[in-house]
Input
Amino acid sequence: MRIADVHNDIDHELVSKERIDEKIREVAAQASDDYRDKNPLLIAVLKGAVNTIAAFSQAMSIPVQLDFMSLSSYGSGTVSSGEVTIRQDLSTDVRGRHVLIVEDIIDSGRTLAWLVDELKRRGTASVEIFALLEKPSRREVDVDVKYHGYEIPDEFVVGFGLDYDERYRNLDSIAVLKPAVYQGDNA
Ligand code: 5GP
Ligand code: MG
Ligand code: MG
Output
């Protein structure tokens, strides 16, 4: 789905499909070099990071394994609850593994800080992070991001996996919704 298909709901596009692809290709090339002899395990948190991990892993030039985890930290609204619980766990034993977490977006950083701690508790050999998007002005918790994508302003975004109330995940770029969508009068 493209911006034009939902133009009534979209205020403006923030990151185009082309810029997403370009950044992912660039970071994937770097990570492929860094992980060449490490049999890396790429982990994404469902559902927002699905598009990113799919595009990123395809752009890598070495074999990787993938796994997924479902966490709850956001409800259907736009504000973090700050609380993290596991809804669905990994199917991989991460002990001794070199893990690369592939994230859609870092807002407060709470979810990711929790996940890094949890993976380290499980005995990983290393844990690094690729974040496609970061909102630096919103950061509350310190997390060490190895591979950076784009910094964005403090606006709630949708697309390329990111949702508002489970909608717009299949938009192929990243965009800001019109305020009316949140107010529910723009159906
Ligand atoms: P954090 O714990 O860093 O505050 O946020 C964790 C999760 O909240 C992100 O991985 C993402 O799923 C969701 N999130 C944060 N900011 C946004 C945003 O602007 N748009 C959407 N759709 N989700 C967001
Ligand atoms: Mg996420
Ligand atoms: Mg969401």
